[in-house]
Amino acid sequence: MTKTKTLATSLLSLSAAAILALVGTTSANAAPAKDTDSSGVAVSSHVASDNGAADYWTPERMKNAKSGDILASKALDRSRLLNLGKAPVTEAPGALSSVEGQQASTDSKAINLKTNQSETPVKHIGKIFFTLGGANYVCSGNSVTAANKSTVSTAGHCVNEGPGAYATNFVFVPAYLNGSAPYGKWTARALYSPTQWASNGNMQYDTAFAVMNTLNGQRLADVVGSSGVQFNAARGLSYKSFGYPAAPPFNGESLKSCSGTATNDPYNPQFATQGIPCNMTGGSSGGPWFIGNSSGGYQNSINSYGYGSNSNTMYGPYWGSVIQSTYTTAAAS
């Protein structure tokens, strides 16, 4: 398995290149899974010009932003049509979760509230706001270790329609709580996603990275810190995921988490995704998965999708060489 990790103050004296060079292996009992894609590694990028994005996101617009899971649902529908050269996409019990489906549910109390817990704000985890197709959306994201100290991880569908246009008015609000932005609103200067996502909307690669502008002359990681990342890890690990679910019964105003051991998606195995017990709803898309039981572990996936309006499993993409290449390109930009 491949790791990149920030070790807080002990590494502050090292160069950015040295931090990115911290690569090692471990002797996990299960053999690391191989990236199953055979179409090659390619990265799609977009230069953002969102100088007015911070002002655009007024408290009212942030409150009324739609869930990014709507975009995930649309991407899944497109993948059914394209078929991506893989096995046909099968229907799980219920459609891919989306804000519309959840709001249409007549019994939101059916969601198992035991599959999440409330969290106090974490400095490097926050909400993401953006515009796509003339509509405003909200997702979740996390500041990750990078040479540029300015990189945020999120879901591919929170950056690019998959396939389609890239987002505008893209901002990251770390440690968001009840409408507050204690560390400011950070605007994007560039957005990166795997070409397999940007060109085909392949759910297997539903991950993206945003490189943020400086704010008041400071870089993001210098203000809120960052998480180490890990690629090509063993499957079936235990994770703790975080996000800001906004669809009922949640309101998106505070951080939630889920914990559990990952298992493969039984409905669409061609996605090569894994799921953990979790009922987080729309708005949590792009929130980080950490190996272990805290926000201090290596990030190894993101919240991508669930099945049905009362889903109790959250699925995330396997971070193999394709997503690693996207991260490496963004982190060095």
TrEMBL record:
Source species, domain of life: Bacteria
Leader peptide range in chain numbering: 1-30
InterPro entries from the UniProt entry: Glutamyl_endopeptidase
Keywords noted in UniProt: Signal
PANTHER family the record matches: SERINE PROTEASE
Protein name: V8-like Glu-specific endopeptidase
Lineage, top ranks: Bacteria, Bacillati, Actinomycetota, Actinomycetes, Micrococcales
